[in-house]
Amino acid sequence: MAGAGAQLRRVVALVLLACCSMAPAATARGMSAGIAHNITSFLSGHPEYKQYNRYLTETRVCDEINARGGVTVLVLGDGAMSTLVSDAGADLGAIKNALRLHALLDYWDVKKLKALPTGADTLTDTFYQAAGGAATSATGSVKMAKLEGGGFGFASAASPGDAYDATFTKALKQTQYDFAVLEVSAPIEFDGLFDGPSVASLTRLLEKAGCKRFAALIASTGVLKDYQAAMADKAGLTLFAPKDDAFLAKGAPDVDKMPRADLVALLRYHALPGYNPRPSLKLVKASARPFRTLASTAGGKYNVRTKPLQGSHTDTALAISAHHSRRHAP
């Protein structure tokens, strides 16, 4: 298995599926050198958002927000956040969905809100949509409007009619074109937001990302059930999923001829038990302990290290025992 894993690692094009969903990809603007905001550091100076800040950290959505420019975060005071946590059944994965829905992929300050047309909806994309959690474009978007009675309303684009879950309360931070933090009065939700990831949604996500071969292999070998079990854990799951062309690359092992036990181990090797979004992996130091995979042994075989590369990808490197390193040098 180790030899096959090393070969496949060398040729694979990695697509990071953080917590079984695509982490929001950074655009050229989003990864500009000017990014300097830190949402958790900012909110730490505002104790009335302690719960919101806590869950940003626990879900690691803060890392996704900090990795981009041109974003707006709709924050909730502790009272409204308690409502959201209750609606989510205190499930961390469900809360993460909601926090991503409250993070907008565009810069909105009070000046831009005032320019909205009165009584007409304006849609804006969210981190929830970019992460692949939305079944439709409507469930991944937030609608905003200038209300006829004054103020601004916010709701999921999937919400019917002109009802709005939340209204604008105040602006906490406005760094023009880069980073805005706005308080809203109540959680933005829709039916299905708090549903957990299913086997169907995972395979659909993999296929959409160009990983159809990988999706078929984990289904046929039963490894998909291992992934699902890890997904059900509060710690979450991270997949390093090879795209289809990786299986045809020179030097890649012929998975059709691999013994079943080796293939199962190889597929489990591509999964980390825990949620590690791309921005978090980029911050891992070279001296850090390697990550355990679903294939890791008690002795540390089949662990992985990560190292950042130029651009938006993260490469992986094997961290295995000495005798395996000699026999199967990368």
TrEMBL record:
UniProt main location, coarse: membrane
Cellular component GO terms, alphabetical: plasma membrane; side of membrane
Coiled coil, from the record: none
Alphabetically ordered keywords of this record: Cell membrane, Glycoprotein, GPI-anchor, Lipoprotein, Membrane, Signal
Segments forming domain FAS1: 198-330
UniProt-annotated location(s): Cell membrane
Annotated signal sequence range: 1-28
InterPro entries associated with the record: FAS1_dom_sf, FAS1_domain, Plant_FLA
Pfam assignment, any one: Fasciclin
Annotated region described as Disordered, given as residue ranges: 302-330
Membrane topology: Lipid-anchor; GPI-anchor
Family, similarity comment: Belongs to the fasciclin-like AGP family.
Protein's name in the database: FAS1 domain-containing protein
Organism name: Triticum turgidum subsp. durum (Durum wheat)
